Write a sequence for this structure.
């Protein structure tokens, strides 16, 4: 896929999502206003237009697409197309059966428009009615088929999911292939070559009320009110005049207003308690955070290494992991949408930004002594595994009671820790250490982990590990 470089992420117009020097990508709610969408037909496309289409996730983001159906659009030029028709010859096929006993036929389709093939996922209930053989695979290669459906993305690869399959020619039907090429080219020249331009309607407020002439008595009344306002002394405002002062004055003037705490105390009637349970008055303040932060991405990398427990691994294996790749992609999109990666005038692709962020995190771990990478991108994660094992051992010692009376400063602990094998100083950011500790206490289910609490160590102003037995949980330190 081609990843267009964002040029204008905030054009100041609600109907525009992204503006580049050559075309404009409009908001999601305007997809149905596209001229091709109004035709209500399956758009005949070349395979080249699909595999080289713009990355719709990179333009709109995961949060900008409201449903899974929105993500199945293919962006040709700036035309969002959902209903697509492709045709070509079968050059390869593979049958696969899932755990739910569902059978799929994966077909490689070629229409001579580019050097790439299009992978099509066809169900068995569509394959057999089309007259295609299910047992003898050799007779299906070279057959020309026509598919109607939508484009989906699976594991960062384009995959066509049809809703109808039809055989339109055999191996020697060259005239059928040429007719389809002319049809696709005519449709492309008529609708898709030029970018779609949307003009928002220019509306003006029109009043339906009849025009009432101004009477002399009304004019006299307005003049009297104006004279009254001008003759009134100017009231000096309070220097702390604000919305807070306004609400405070309202409470002073209306002392009979029942506070939330008093209302909760008065709900002793059984019927009221049944209708309004007390838990419904408790609200948690959820902070506004990024969809995927850098700390979460680092934690995903650490979790992958610890769960694999492989001291040596190729770096590309970590880069292509499904969980790490999803968080890396989401974090990169968030950074791009907030214009935090590069100035708008630079030329850089989306894949290059992905690799840049990934290698920055790898470099940070490598500088901290947690990873070692060779020139062939083979990584050695022994220090990181030993570091996390040391954290786990420390938590077990605290929970077992051997370190009950001691407060361990997390920052000083991470700085002073040295790997026993490598004799090298290992450093990790405190916020990442907090996340690793939370993961160890939660997912690994350490014994007596519920007795471990976090507390603010007042003498040093830092976070510390505190062990509090059950009888002393209420005692403030």
């Amino acid at each position: 896929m081609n990843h267009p470089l964002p040029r204008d992420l905030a054009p100041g117009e609600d109907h525009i999502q992204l503006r580049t020097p050559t075309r404009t990508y409009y908001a999601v709610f305007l997809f149905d206003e596209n001229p091709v969408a109004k035709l209500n037909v399956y758009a005949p496309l070349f395979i080249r237009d699909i595999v080289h289409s713009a990355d719709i996730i990179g333009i709109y983001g995961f949060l900008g697409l409201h449903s899974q159906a929105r993500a199945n659009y293919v962006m040709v030029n700036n035309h969002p197309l959902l209903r697509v028709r492709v045709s070509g010859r079968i050059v390869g096929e593979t049958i696969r059966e899932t755990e739910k006993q569902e059978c799929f036929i994966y077909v490689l389709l070629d229409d001579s428009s580019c050097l790439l093939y299009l992978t099509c996922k066809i169900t068995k209930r569509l394959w057999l009615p089309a007259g295609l053989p299910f047992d003898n695979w050799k007779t299906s290669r070279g057959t020309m088929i026509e598919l109607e459906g939508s484009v989906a993305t699976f594991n960062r690869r384009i995959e066509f999911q049809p809703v109808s399959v039809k055989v339109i020619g055999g191996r020697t039907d060259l005239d059928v292939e040429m007719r389809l090429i002319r049809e696709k080219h005519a449709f492309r020249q008529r609708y898709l070559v030029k970018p779609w331009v949307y003009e928002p309607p220019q509306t003006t407020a029109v009043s339906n009320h009849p025009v009432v002439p101004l009477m002399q008595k009304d004019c006299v009344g307005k003049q009297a009110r104006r004279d009254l306002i001008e003759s009134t002394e100017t009231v000096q405002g309070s220097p702390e005049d604000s919305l807070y002062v306004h609400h405070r004055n309202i409470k002073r003037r209306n002392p009979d207003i029942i506070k939330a705490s008093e209302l909760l105390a008065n709900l002793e009637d059984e019927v009221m308690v049944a209708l309004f349970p007390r838990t419904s008055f408790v609200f948690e303040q959820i902070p506004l955070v990024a969809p995927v932060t850098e700390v979460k991405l680092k934690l995903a990398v650490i979790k992958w290494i610890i769960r694999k427990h492989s001291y040596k691994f190729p770096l590309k294996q970590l880069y292509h992991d499904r969980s790490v790749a999803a968080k890396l992609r989401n974090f990169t999109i968030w950074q791009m949408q907030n214009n935090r990666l590069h100035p708008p005038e630079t030329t850089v692709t989306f894949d290059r930004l992905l690799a840049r962020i990934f290698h920055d995190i790898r470099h940070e771990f490598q500088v901290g002594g947690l990873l070692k990478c060779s020139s062939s991108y083979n990584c050695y994660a022994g220090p990181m595994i030993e570091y996390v094992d040391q954290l786990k051992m420390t938590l077990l010692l605290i929970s077992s009671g051997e370190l009950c009376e001691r407060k361990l400063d997390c920052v000083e602990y991470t700085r002073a820790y040295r790997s026993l094998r490598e004799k090298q100083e290992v450093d990790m950011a405190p916020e990442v250490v907090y996340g690793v500790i939370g993961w160890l206490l939660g997912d690994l289910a350490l014994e007596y982990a519920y007795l471990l609490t976090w507390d603010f160590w007042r003498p040093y102003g830092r976070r510390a590990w505190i062990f509090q037995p059950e009888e002393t949980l209420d005692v403030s330190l």
Summary: Residues 174-192 form the longest helix (19 residues). Residues 1-198 form a domain with the OB fold (Dihydrolipoamide Acetyltransferase, E2P) fold (CATH 2.40.50.1040). Residues 58 and 168 are 36 Å apart (CA to CA).
